[in-house]
Specification:
Elements: H1 4-16, H2 18-26, H3 30-42, H4 46-74, H5 76-93, H6 100-132, H7 136-155, H8 163-181, H9 190-193, H10 205-231, H11 236-263, H12 268-286, H13 290-301, H14 306-318, H15 324-352, H16 356-377, H17 382-387
Protein name: YbfB/YjiJ family MFS transporter
Pfam families: MFS_4
Organism: Micromonospora qiuiae
Amino acid sequence: MRSPVLRQGVWQAARLALGTASALGLARFAYGLLLPAMRDDLHWTLAEAGAMGTANGLGYLVGALATAPVVHHSGAASAFRWGMALTAVALATTAAGDDYLALLTARAAAGAAGAVVFITGGVIASRIAARVASGVPITVYFAGTGLGIVFSGAAIPALGDHWRLAWVGLGVAAAVATLVSWTAARSERDTTDATAGRARIRPLWGTALAYLLFAAGYITYITFLSAYLADRRTPIVQVVAIWAVLGLAVLAAPALWSRPTSHWPGTRALATLLGVLAGGAALALAAPAPPVILASAIAYGITFMSVPAAVTALIRANTLPTDWTATLAAFTTLFAVGQTAGPWIAGIVADHTSTGATLAWTAILCAVAALIAATAGRSRLSTATTMRDPVPSRQVPEARVQ
């Protein structure tokens, strides 16, 4: 760390990262580990199992649409804190019964609360990054997802078919995360920023389209990975190892991507991330041997949560600070649309083919997204340049759309 100010900012972002650990690592991605047990116990088809992911994505969409008014009313810090608390409640509620509609509702509630956490935490992390003149707090914030994945991967497979107990455990873990992150969710500019700002999509149209395709694609890999492994009778020890390695790769991602997302021009970092992610998903299909699956999980883990970090850096670089909340909320809405449709469509395709189709879906959509991001990076979007204040002399240059 270069200075006490930077150290303090990174420490605050690390505690704030429990937001992505809870809202994403626990409330969204842990379902992939529980899917095989729930599918067997409740006699679901893959389409019905995928619809649970769709419900979570639909709730996420509602939460994304509600975030700007909520922040306007109560501020980013308060919205983050109560979003965390509601996420914990929604997770514990999922264990209450086996009624399909009730489970869909619980998954939707977890998605809505998680969206509020994700957006407001990203805004607060962006403000920390601006204060310490470094992009590290942003990547640290998004890397917190890995902690939730590691916890889920270590705890859930050991519970076997006891999926209700697993949901209770996830709720307790989310409650602990809420308490630890409570004081980290402070934001000096809630009063001014909550009352202003417009969503700026047009200057970042290529990024927005790539993000939409990424959302529809990436979610199917982590949703159906355990089902893919179960179909191949992968031992539980190997499942635990794969999920642990995937989560650790997410935690390691900031060391690899903090500098590229802050310094590489235009959308180069975003296109690279999407390309590596597509290749990692395809790798699992090439040869379903344990070492290959592990390599696929590593490639996926070091990239998929760095994509939102890269998008957030682009938003921060190409919009005014007063527009960050509205623009990030708009991008998260697009993201929610993609990840709502993705699992359901991929589940239908898999019902008529195999679970391998879900990994192919991820590879294809992320490859297309990489091409779009690379093309957008070569476009000259002069509007974005005029909207951004000059970078302060002490601030690290950000990735600006070319």
